[in-house]
Amino acid sequence: MSEFIAPPCHGVIEVLYQDEHLLLINKPSGLLSLSGKNPLNKDSVHYRLVQDFPTATLLHRLDFGTSGIMLVALNKQVNGLLTQQFQQRTISKTYTAILHGVLPDEEGEIDLPIAKDVDNFPLMKICHDTGKPAKSHYQVIERHPHGLSTKVTFSPITGRTHQLRIHSQQIGHPILGCDLYRNEQSQQMAPRLLLHATSLTFIHPITLETMNCICPSPF
């Protein structure tokens, strides 16, 4: 069982879009998506949202350190319809990340299956025997002039827990600021996890309009 206690998060949730059916929000880094079992981990995206939107339900999560776009349903019907879109992988997402070192290629795909690491909770591991398929596409945005880091856009094709973080580590370029999947330098090079959910595209379940929400990266 994890003994992690989240420090107080002073960042605020920004509402990017709102109608009677759903919300698109910008989650701050350092805030849990859902409240933990430990009462000291009560503060979360869901806990804050239901103060103003009592029927709000989260359709997906972002890791504690990840910031950016989250999609929230405001009623049971919309939750069901959007959950179908997630299951059918018709919802597309991109993330901005800064990785340690210099990636040699302009773009690429990481295809490594991910499984729970039962001996090292909450870590995940790469396992070709028991892991679930996991694919992440990346495109280089810019490289640090002194070779310290590379900014990329990630387009995850699957949505496994910790996928982008462990995939980055496995190719030798962990995300800066990551506490779980790191090398000797990468965690100390940033005050937070440099991973941000930048865009989310889906079909509005009621209006059937294509929704393309952008939330620029703060780094």
Describe this structure in words.
By secondary structure, the chain is mainly β. The protein is built from 3 helices and 12 strands. The protein has helices spanning 45-52, 76-87, 163-170; strands spanning 14-18, 22-27, 57-58, 67-73, 92-100, 107-111, 114-116, 124-126, 135-143, 149-156, 195-203, 210-214. The strands form 2 sheets. Strands 1, 2, 3, 4, 5, 6, 9, 10, 11 and 12 form a 10-stranded mixed β-sheet that branches. The longest helix has 12 residues, at 76-87. The two termini are 33 Å apart. The mean pLDDT is 96.
Quickly describe the structure.
By secondary structure, the protein is mainly beta. The protein has helices at 45-52, 76-87, 163-170; strands at residues 14-18, 22-27, 57-58, 67-73, 92-100, 107-111, 114-116, 124-126, 135-143, 149-156, 195-203, 210-214.
